[in-house]
Automatic annotation (TrEMBL):
<keyword id="KW-0678">Repressor</keyword>
<dbReference type="InterPro" id="IPR047057">
    <property type="entry name" value="MerR_fam"/>
</dbReference>
<keyword id="KW-0805">Transcription regulation</keyword>
<dbReference type="InterPro" id="IPR000551">
    <property type="entry name" value="MerR-type_HTH_dom"/>
</dbReference>
<feature type="coiled-coil region">
    <location>
        <begin position="99"/>
        <end position="126"/>
    </location>
</feature>
<keyword id="KW-0175">Coiled coil</keyword>
<dbReference type="InterPro" id="IPR009061">
    <property type="entry name" value="DNA-bd_dom_put_sf"/>
</dbReference>
<keyword id="KW-0238">DNA-binding</keyword>
<dbReference type="Pfam" id="PF13411">
    <property type="entry name" value="MerR_1"/>
</dbReference>
<keyword id="KW-0804">Transcription</keyword>
<dbReference type="GO" id="GO:0003677">
    <property type="term" value="F:DNA binding"/>
</dbReference>
<feature type="domain" description="HTH merR-type">
    <location>
        <begin position="11"/>
        <end position="80"/>
    </location>
</feature>
<dbReference type="GO" id="GO:0003700">
    <property type="term" value="F:DNA-binding transcription factor activity"/>
</dbReference>
<protein>
    <submittedName>
        <fullName>MerR family transcriptional regulator</fullName>
    </submittedName>
</protein>
Length: 149
């Protein structure tokens, strides 16, 4: 693959991806082995080079993994945009819907986290009242349910 100087300036080495995305070198290589990510180019010496688009793809893969999606599920989502015979419009629409589905999954996870946070706040408030309690025993106390024993 031939690149101009301008192209090379816009490409990043694998270590740059580690810093920009916050994943390990091993993770990037694993995603490459699984076919989720591939470098835009390689130098004559075999050094992998990645574009801004590759960085976005890696961030998207990382987001999907944080949402507990399997590698196979991620492959399905990403492969929906890989059909080269489709029009630009179709590719954009599929990318858009994939992002909407991802946002919905994030919203679902956020709702779960919000409920967990509310439950924890209730438990902390109850245990705080236990710390201030002067009774010799917790027998009959409704706050007792929050004490881990």
């Amino acid at each position: 693959m031939t690149h101009t100087d301008a192209d090379i300036q816009e490409l990043y080495q694998i270590g740059d991806l580690v810093r920009k995305v916050g994943v390990s070198l091993r993770t990037i290589r694993y995603y490459e082995e699984e076919g989720l990510l591939k470098p835009t180019a390689k130098t004559q010496g075999g050094l992998r080079l990645y574009s801004e688009r590759d960085i976005f793809r890696l961030k998207y893969i990382t987001t999907l993994r944080h949402l507990n999606m399997s590698i196979e599920e991620i492959k399905t989502i990403l492969s929906q945009n890989a059909v080269s015979s489709d029009s630009r419009s179709d590719l954009i629409k599929r990318s858009y819907y994939a992002m909407i589905l991802t946002k919905q999954k994030i919203d679902e996870e956020q709702n779960i986290l919000n409920r967990l946070k509310e439950n924890m706040a209730e438990a902390l408030e109850s245990i705080q009242s236990c710390l201030e309690c002067q009774k010799p025993s917790c027998t009959g106390c409704s706050q007792k349910k929050f004490i881990l024993a």
